[in-house]
Amino acid sequence: MRRVTFAAAIGNTIETYDYAVYGFLTVVLSKLFFPGSQPGVALLSAFAVFGVAFVVRPLGSLLFGSIADRVGRRPSLVATLVLMAGATTVIGLLPTAETVGVWAPILLVVMRLLQGLAAGGEYGTAMTFAAEFTPQNRRGAMTSRVQIGSIASLLLAAGAVLLLSAVLTPEAMASWGWRVPFLLALPLGLIGFYIRARLEESPEFRALEHTGEVSQSPAKESFTRYGKLIVLVFGVAAFQQIGYYVAFTYAQSYIIQLGFTQGQATLATVVSIAVAVVLVAVGGPLSDRWGRWPMLLVLSAVMLVTAYPLFAALSSAKTLPLVVLVTVAMGIVPALYTSVAPATYIEVVPAKVRATVFAVGFALAAALLGGPALYISQFLVEATGDNRAPAYFLMFGALLSLIAALFVRRRRPQGLVVDRGEPAGEPPLDREPEGV
């Protein structure tokens, strides 16, 4: 179980690390890849490139989700890891606009698209793989451990940027320092590949193979028979996506715009993420005791009423300790929510299309809500002139997920092989009907 947890977590770690590094270096990258633009326009352009990776995530979810449901969870996990680590390493080697002109942002967009393709299948397959080894009364704890990899990678990315900002001059950071965090993806990817290539297949997929129930067209079946479940996964993921990127990625750029240095803004974000790691570890086991949908409902409601006051407090903060305190407070609810949601996705979707439905619903939320989160948050500030405006987007995501939690309540969790105590690969007994 430790090996399964670590194998699933390391891919999520690399995926989120790659995205987070770009987010934390957005201010620097905007000057290197969009140097001719006004500062505000350049920053928006860099945020737009951040969001581009999310546009292709639904395509990646169909591709790698189908591989996971037709061929196996393990081959999909290996493929997504190799593609993600490779694209991120290349970003660290890209020439800037000063060297190749317009080709610089074009190449950056291409690499971001490849990252997005890999990310579309990584999260859903990794969570599915880990959960299918775990009984229901421990599934929240297990998936939250995998989720810790995602949060910890934010800490790793923020720590790398903070360290470089502290030891390098701004000129050195703009010249070559920004490349270092991206190039770290290569050794991380090699470690992840070694671990995942040695994994065995999940008990649930082996049981499907044994009984001949493996779907031959999981993408088609997902949309024709389980479309409502895709919508449900999307709704649950809405707040997870928006809260995650607003609280743990956009907050850094937001604090810089309040007049604090990049080092101070990154420090505030690092402290917030460190607290989030602890909360994620706590939230999953709590959902095993209290249930998934009650926690999703309560957390969404809390964010709905606290988002605006938190942004109001942050926008008016004048000292670094106060900024750190409010940034930490802003990340509490998103951290707890993101520890509960993964087990929910697993339990509302039947096994033979689980990876595809999970990946597609989650990727659509990422493409429509998570990817544009930085851009939309900044656009709201620019368009309204109100530094508190990003709170409205956060509240929108919380409202969508609150409604989705009510529908989760109406669904009985799907039984897995490990829940029934059957040997992996043996014919499952009394399998429940899998219709919607």
What does this structure look like?
The structure is a single chain. By secondary structure, this protein is mainly α. It has a single domain, classed as Growth Hormone, Chain: A, CATH 1.20.1250. Helices cover 81% and strands 0% of the residues. It has 21 helices and no strands. Helix 5 (73-91) runs antiparallel to helix 7, helix 8 runs antiparallel to helix 17 (320-348) and helix 15 packs parallel to helix 17. The longest helix has 32 residues, at 136-167. 57% of the residues are buried. It is found in: Cell membrane. InterPro entries: H+-coupled_symporters, MFS_dom, MFS_sugar_transport-like, MFS_trans_sf, Sugar_transporter_CS. The chain crosses the membrane at residues 40-64, 76-94, 100-119, 148-170, 176-195, 229-247, 267-286, 293-314, 320-345, 357-377, 389-408. Residues 4-413 form the Major facilitator superfamily (MFS) profile domain.
Low-confidence segments, given as residue ranges, are 423-436
Query: Could you give the count of β-strands?
Result: 0
Average pLDDT rating: 86
Look up the CATH topology: Growth Hormone, Chain: A
CATH superfamily: MFS general substrate transporter like domains
The multimeric state of the shown protein is single chain
State the helix count: 21
Structural class: mainly alpha
Write the H/E string, N to C: HHHHHHHHHHHHHHHHHHHHH
Tell me, what is the CATH class?
A: Mainly Alpha
* Number of individual domains: 1
Radius of gyration: 21 Å
* CATH level-two architecture: Up-down Bundle
Amino-to-carboxy terminus distance: 31 Å
Strand content: under 5%
Main sheet record:
none
Q: Which word captures the global form? A: globular
Query: Helical proportion?
Result: over 70%
